[in-house]
Every structure is written in structure tokens, then in C-alpha cells.
Amino acid sequence: MPYSKQHKTVLQAVMHEGALHEDRGKELVIRLFDHNNTAQILNEINAKLKPLCTTIKRINCEVTGELYWIFTSMVQDKTASFVSHFSQAELALLRNVYSEIITSNDSCVSSTFCLNLCSSLNAKLTKTDAELFLLEMANRQWLCCKEGKYYMGVRSIAELLQYFKDTYEGNLQICTLCKQELFYGDKCNQCNAITHVYCLKNYARNHSSLGCPNCPFSTSRQNLSSSNTSCAMDVEDASQTSMEIHEMTQSSQTRKLKRKRKNELM
Predict the structure, then answer these.
(1) What residues does CATH 3.90.1150.220 cover in the chain?
(2) Which of 113, 124, 142, 180 is disulfide-compatible with 153, CB 3.0–4.6 A?
(3) Nearest to 140 by CA among 211, 104, 90
């Protein structure tokens, strides 16, 4: 079908969110086009975006496995660039957090360690302001926060991969199955092969095996048996519930931090 106002609405939603959850994207497509063929709609939008060297990518969060739609440039440069309303101190902190995540053995860094990085910055940044900033980065999917630890966010993977390749060439690993760069995954204790968690779940589902795809050894980090028994409706409901809980938690944390910051200034 021809490119229409409905296509523009989907594109605007993705650009506004920065990282639009697939479930919400699907709901929008159904409402606008009366069908759920999201691949068709994204292909039609991307055909229009191609001359502008931009595209909408569908990318899995490495930690949760959930899919997001992200508007990004097809020509990435070697620098990490962000919107201008963040301070130099905040951006310096984020780059330091990236460095710690990529060079860490666990592919993550604790929130406490992130706040302690403030003391190493050239520009002054209070721990309260830093906590608010990192929380906002998690809300915008630049980072992924889980159980008090920060992981690489899906938006960073989509938009800053070239920067990571050029800056941390020796630290990036490749997924055993999809052959794409990987920041967080399941590592085999026998052959040291590392695989995206969601790739490993798909592999286990299709091959009825919980072993490493590179050797017969069993996997170590994730218990994948539940992925074979969950029905599609269960997965969708769990995903929606996860999003709602995440939003409620993040909103509550933001309000508490803003009150704390206000009290410090009074």
C-alpha cells in the first residue's frame, strides 16, 4: 500500500519514544491498519527512510529478551553523541559506565559503583543528580537496570555500536548463534562460547536441547526449561506486566530522588 499518514504516525511514535516496545508498536499498527503485520509496515516505512540513511531496527534487549523498535542512522560514526540537554558531567559519567560494563567480567556494573564514579569526573556531579540521570538513561533504554545493576541498553546497542567497536575493539564478543556483537549473554563453562540469552532460548526451543550450541556441555547462567512450556499468551501477558511494573517502579524512584534533591537544595 502507498505510504500514508498512518505510516507517519508509526514513525513519529518510534522517534518520540526512542525505543518503542514491540507490543506497543503492534497495538499501534492494529489500530491504524486493521492488521498485525508489523513486518510489512516497518518495511514500507524503511523503504521511505532509506534515501535518508535512516531506518527502524527491531532489536532484542540482551537482558530481558524483549523486542524494541528503534529509529537510528544507517551510517554511524566513531563518537558517542547524545541530545544536547545533558551536561558534560552526565555524559562523562555515562561513558565511564559504558566502559565499566564492557570491560566487566559480568557485563554489568552495580548502581553503587556507578555513583562512586562521580568522584573521578572532571566536572562536579552530585550522587543524587547522577542517580536521577542514570535512572532517566534506563527509562530511555540507553541502559538496562535490573536488581541494582546496570547493563547495556538496547538503544545504545542500536545507535552506538560503531563507537563501541572502535573504542573497545578487543572487548566485544560475538554471539555463537546469530554472529552479532554481544554485551551480555550466557557463557559456556566448557568451551567459553557466549550466546545471547534470547538466541539460546530459541535454540533450545527448536532443538529440544538445553546444551551449549557449540559443544554438548549444559548452559550455566540461564534456566531455559520454562521457555518450552510457556504459551504465547503467557509470554505476552508476562511482558505487559513486566513493562507496567517497570514503569511504576521507575516513576516512584524518580519522584523520591527529585524530593531528595529538592531537600538538599533547600
Answers:
(1) 5-73
(2) 142
(3) 90
